Structure prediction request, 278 residues.
Amino acid sequence: MPASFPVLDVHHHVGNAFRALGGDVSLGAGLEAEAFAEQELSSRLAIMDAADVDQAVVIPGHGYERANGIADTKLENDAIAAYRDRTPERFPVAVGIVEPRDGEASLEELTRCREELGLAGISFHTRFQGVSLDSRWIRTYCERMAELELVPVIHAMDETPEEALWKLAVLARAVPETPVLALDAFGSYEATRQCFFIAEVAPNVIFDTSLSYNFDFIEEFVGAFGPERVVFGTDLYSHPVGRRISHILPQILESELSDDVKRMILAGNARRLFGLAR
Prediction:
């Protein structure tokens, strides 16, 4: 049996996945808010426990309703901070959201996220935000985040033009001294091969393992660029689509990487990235 290691998953979304991806958004609507929250949390913890995942970074879903503009975004950030605070031993890090739609007002929200809510990063998923990754506002926010020591958490699904990997590189090179966490970048074979090039031209990008179908290619990536460039992530929604942790975790454990490298990928790199005590 593979050895057991501490595991910190950097990519857990809180919310109804169907709001962004299509499907029956009414699932769970018959429950009172408190009951739904209990069900969502218990489901997430059960999935984590079944896979021996100790902790996770929580991120709001990007499909939330925004009829009230930045007021709705603030509520999402308040909620994700509260989610972290409710079970901090399992969710030691929370990441927030700002919307390019809100222009300069989002700069104030960045400061609030850091100084009042204690959030560790800000997530961008531009396919749901109406802009491209290389937009002026995304770059402006990341420059401000560098000053605030907030980690840019960038969804980079190369299959969508808004999140093309070359745009990830352009954005990362705009803040070269700031570590940038790229989510979903290994989502296909072609995208995975492109990540080798992106890693060369933007050495501050760290890649999570979510959506990868095979760890063999990531293992090759680790050999080329070092284990510090990879962190474990699954893109988990516990409701209504979550059932299990990604198949990548056992592949990491069963790989030929050294135990020290496995520890870095499974938890150590993420803990350093988000400033968690050892």
Observations:
- The chain has a mean pLDDT of 92.
- Residues 53 and 195 are 26 Å apart (CA to CA).
- The chain has one domain: 8-273.
